[in-house]
Amino acid sequence: MLHLRKLATMDLLGQLFGVTAMTISRAKQEVRPLLEAHGHHINTSTARLRTPADVATFLAPDPTQTKVKKTS
Questions:
Q1: Residue-range domain boundaries for the chain
Q2: pLDDT tens for residues 27-42?
Q3: pTM score
Q4: Average pLDDT in the 9-25 region?
Q5: How distant, in Å, are the alpha carbons of 3, 13, 15, 26, 45 from that of 67?
Q6: Cα–Cα distance between 63 and 19 in angstroms, integer?
Q7: How many angstroms separate the CA atoms of 67 and 64, rounded?
């Protein structure tokens, strides 16, 4: 999904999951037809992650943005 959304390169995903880019490519080739067969369209992301450091920065909590509404 991350590669289909153009969020991460196959090389980066391979590094993160400890596999080769070819393995990621094969998985993508298997997943895409299944998603399409069930009517799921994958939208492209505006974010681009190229290194593990990019991923860490992207996932780091931003104290200026509240993602979960607090209740009293």
A1: 10-59
A2: 999 998 999 999 988 8
A3: 0.65
A4: 92
A5: 24, 26, 28, 34, 19
A6: 33
A7: 10
